[in-house]
Amino acid sequence: MLQLCLSWLGMGPLTASPWHLLLLGGASWILARILAWIYAFYDNCSRLRCFPQPPKPSWFWGHLALAKWQCLASKGTSRLDMFEHISLMTLDSLQKCIFSVDSNCQESDSKYIAAILELSSLVAKRHCQPFLYLDFLYYLTADGRRFRKACDLVHNFTDAVIRERRSTLNTQGVEFLKAKAKTKTLDFIDVLLMAEDEHGKGLSNEDIRAEADTFMFGGHDTTTSALSWILYNLARHPEYQERCRQEVQELLRDRDSEEIEWDDLAQLPFLTMCIKESLRLHPPVLLISRCCTQDVVLPDGRAIPKGNICVISIFGVHHNPSVWPDPEVYNPFRFDPENPQKRSPLAFIPFSAGTRNCIGQTFAMSEIKVALALTLLRFRILPDDKEPRRKPELILRAEGGLWLRVEPLSAGAQ
Ligand code: HEM
To answer: Residues that bind heme, according to the entry (predicted)?
Structure first.
């Protein structure tokens, strides 16, 4: 499966640079992690640590589906598939943060975003067709050809951004990046361009492309699934939804603008509890796998021998009734910091755990909090008539989409 996911990064055995081979071998995460720390660090004082400085006060608003929802729901309640709308929002904001490009994909078609969506669905489809795991067979199929075409489009886009940025760097020198750092408009490509190893060697264009594309790929579907199921759980529990809304309204009371600042993110305890409980009940990533580097002795004395690959069910861990009483019940108070539970830190692992856990979790939690807070300020989210059925794919989806009803708050008050 790892190879299927990596194949779209352009990492065939013939094209792989030593760096790519390291990534395949599981070592490049060290670099990626260092970069993530640098990225979080440089922006320490900005308004939203994980996002580039908005060029306009309405930057994030512009990257949320909310303006579109307002339009769709202008005549009352609108029935919307959350996955469809939210995935465009997460892709839009990722493209902005990684490349500083405004895709405007929520208003009009974007070929690049369409290609990323196509790649994600093709990888999920191929995952269920083990006989097509062999590249040479897959590329003979119509899907394989679509996959190659979409890959080319995505790679060409990333290559063009990197080439252009490198040429600016060559002509203007690092001063150009320093100036961007001062105005907090560095993006992920800039950070990768500046990265050097201990011998002062930077990354090749191919390395940068692989890192940037990994973030696009790993960051959009997961956050989309998380936000969609959070809205679903809040729709089913209007009392929690209302309490979250009041918390946000209270936080922004007496402010000129409805922007969420970086420090605000720590001031939304109940909203955070609701997010965590949804990540428990509906974890976006259902399974992870690990190869045992040593014999692992289980509590009953049996041992998993070194060298075996174990699949760990995040969904199973989160629904273990001996740790989570009534595991199917949505109860945000399980995460009440005022009432800490005697649970293992490994009982809740939506972002996995250990040295290979999710690199983007701070980014994801910040994005989710901002998107949720701004959505609840404007809309009431109501359940659809039909209960969705969970659909486990590479991420947790819903069969036929996750449909909810969205009503502008002003409409409810009338
Ligand atoms: C709610 C949203 C997210 C969830 C639930 C999630 C979950 C996960 C999980 C479970 C892993 C697997 C780690 C393992 O194998 O143990 C992972 C890895 C990863 N995630 Fe996320 N993720 C989310 C958002 C993001 C975002 C926004 C980004 C980037 C912007 C991102 C980038 C990555 C990367 C690069 C890895 C591979 C890390 C490595 O192999 O060292 N993720 N994520």
So the answer is: 358
